[in-house]
Amino acid sequence: MDFKDFVKLDNERVFLNAKEFSDWHDLNGRRCNAIVQQVVINDDLTVSDADFNYGAFGYGAVINVLKSDLPKVPKFGTVWDVDGKLGEIINVADDEGMLTITWRANDV
Fold first, then answer.
1. What is the DSSP string of 29-82?
2. Helix (H) or strand (E) holding 105
3. Which of 42, 61, 82, 99 has its Cα between 20 and 30 A from that of 24?
């Protein structure tokens, strides 16, 4: 086995091990074993004027999932459903078959 084979096995057996780090999630209609780390977004969703702040609370997630578990790699700006919540893909990185997807949504 070469290095890439070991990385692939680690991704499947260690990082996305449902007994350790990951859980089952609905990612845009596909049930996948993934790590979904919830994050709070509050800096670029707020608009203000001189008298009042109009705030929109934001939430998002950093999602780790195997590239092979999705029918296609999502693209920047795509509307995507994560566990029943609609949001937008703002970044996708492919690291040896493990996707790191950054996703955000408004929660008014």
1. TEEEEEEEEEEEE-SSS-EE-SS-EE--EEEEEEEEEEGGGSSS---TT-EEEE
2. strand 98-107
3. 42
Chain centroid offset of residue 106 CA = 15
For the record, the structure tokens of 72 come out as 């296609």
pTM for this entry: 0.78
- What are 34-72's pLDDT values in tens digits? 999 988 665 544 445 544 444 555 778 999 999 999 999
Distance of CA 87 to the CA centre of its chain: 10
Is the CB of residue 63 less than 8 Å from the CB of residue 36? yes
For 59, the token pair is 């939430």
Q: Which residues pair with 79 in a beta bridge?
A: 88
